[in-house]
From TrEMBL:
Keywords: Magnesium, Metal-binding. GO terms for cellular component: cytoplasm. Gene3D superfamilies: HAD superfamily/HAD-like. Belongs to the HAD-like hydrolase superfamily. This is Haloacid dehalogenase-like hydrolase domain-containing protein 2. CDD domains: HAD_PPase. Its cofactor is Mg(2+).
Amino acid sequence: MAARRALKAVLVDLNGTLHIEDAAVPGAQEALKRLRGTSVMVRFVTNTTKESKQDLLERLKKLEFDISEDEIFTSLTAARNLVEQKQVRPMLLVDDRALPDFKGIQTSDPNAVVIGLAPEHFHYQILNQAFRLLLDGAPLIAIHKARYYKRKDGLALGPGPFVTALEYATDTKATVVGKPEKTFFLEALRGTGCEPEEAVMIGDDCRDDVGGAQNVGMLGILVQTGKYRAADEEKINPPPYLTCESFPHAVDHILQHLL
């Protein structure tokens, strides 16, 4: 890892770290205000594919989080950027609420498959349609490959198992655009003027949030909320820079030890 420099930016995961669906993590709003009272830049990075950025922003505002749209970088944005770059017509295997983030993208006569979390669409007929496109040479773009995520009623399957099934059936490899990909974190930092060695990532996913961030040179703080399960911190090497109870505790540590 490159030498540490003075902290300039904090990247924060959303679902599982600041909130779980429609409930804020206790004390998270106040902790965010304290973090904003410092000189660091704050950016929010999320793999969510269940809703558009606009819907996500409205949810956060209802929970009284002071966040603006240009501070949020989503894996949907990263996927759209790649679709435009490759100039393909994707079959969009995403939740209907995420479709506004692909507005203007040509999807008729698809020649690519973009897959996110789409519980309503993950059935045999649709997956078989994707399978056939891939067999004909269409590229597979995975918005992310998370194994599972946290809902109010417990843990639930993420898109990862479905992406892996399509990879296995077609003997292809997906291009993954969300966390933990290095390009995702570097893209999220773009515009802040910060290097990875000047940034910290806070999240509840040991692999996608913390492992991904640390692989690119950031410090990673794992919070024990959301999808966290006992001993998650032992699943990555190097281990998280810090494992703590929740987002407010992570902010306390930053204020006391990193600034």
